[in-house]
Give the backbone structure.
Amino acid sequence: MDIKEAQQRVDLWIKQYGVKYFSELTNTVILTEEVGEFAKIIARKYGEQSFKTKEKEASATQDLEEEMADIFFVLICLANQMNIDLNTAFLKTIEKKTIRDKDRHIMNKKLL
């Protein structure tokens, strides 16, 4: 599935099951919440924080996938609401980063 199809599928889902899009403000807050849930797992799996007793380290990878997909879903909702073609926007970002950073990271001694 490409990004355009993902945007269409989210729009169809909202129309069939979600009744309507939440407001842009509400979706931005939900996006922040989802990023926080993703960050919490990252802090435990890759950082110094340990898993709480009720949390299972074994399911962390699956949880990361779910949280990342939740982030993507809400981001698509926001793009749909704001009439943003994420495919075009993403291609522009790749072009911008390529022009701006084509030598930057290669010359970064910290990355070698």
User: Anything to note?
Assistant: DSSP finds four helices and no strands in the chain.
